[in-house]
Design a protein that fits this description.
Layout lengths: L9 H21 L6 H8 L3 H8 L2 H19 L12 H18 L1 H12 L5 H25 L5 H28 L5 H17 L3
Length: about 210
């Protein structure tokens, strides 16, 4: 029977978090393949023995970085769910878009890493699995928000709307992140209003 790893101490958790913070920043700017364990050891100041104890390998670091980033990102848009008394589907939809836009702006390193992998999928199975997992979670989150936003239309119609509109909303967020990174002069407030209007028009046509 394999020996159980001792429970992490507060100091150990702090060390793990520091390694993940540094790894996310390095991989987002340099790329996964150009970030070595030597880089991570040097930049974090954490001994190699501690890093390997926590993560066992570079792919283990990546998996933890993606899990940590996804958890923070999706937690930050949890408040976008409309309340049970929400009677205006378009307003609920725009609320979701605005809350999600804040999450996009607040998580640049994680999303830069994710988008880099999405655009240049590597042969590494670990990377493919992590990207697919984040994409799937994003789609499920958006579908849930949309179904809740259009609940007053009846469950079956709301589910059909969520299924059809979710890919369009996700494509918007992909573009939004690129726009924010390019520092163009897009009027974000107006863009969110326009996208909410457009998605609502699509939803209205689904019966």
């Amino acid at each position: 029977m394999p020996a159980r790893r001792p429970a992490a101490t507060p100091r150990g958790e702090h060390t793990r978090e520091e390694v993940l913070r540094v790894a996310e920043a390095l991989m987002a700017t340099r790329g996964y393949w150009s970030t070595s364990m030597v880089d991570l050891i040097r930049e974090s100041g954490v001994p190699s023995s501690s890093i390997y104890w926590h993560f066992t390998s570079k792919s283990g670091v990546l998996a933890a970085v993606m899990e940590r980033g996804a958890s923070a990102f999706f937690a930050s848009i949890a408040a976008a769910n409309p309340g049970p008394n929400q009677q205006d589907p378009r307003a609920a939809l725009e609320h979701m878009l605005r809350q999600s836009a804040v999450a996009v702006a607040d998580n640049p390193s994680f999303l830069a890493l994710y988008m880099n992998f999405l655009l240049h999928l590597e042969e590494e199975p670990t990377i493919q699995a992590q990207v697919a997992g984040v994409r799937r979670q994003a789609m499920e989150t958006i579908r849930a928000h949309l179904a809740a936003s259009y609940a007053t239309y009846g469950q079956e119609r709301a589910d059909r709307i969520a299924e059809r509109v979710a890919p369009l909303a996700l494509a918007f967020f992909d573009g939004l992140f690129v726009s924010l990174q390019s520092s163009d002069e897009t009027d974000l407030d107006q863009a969110l209003t326009d996208v909410a209007h457009g998605l609502h028009q699509v939803a209205e046509g689904i019966h």
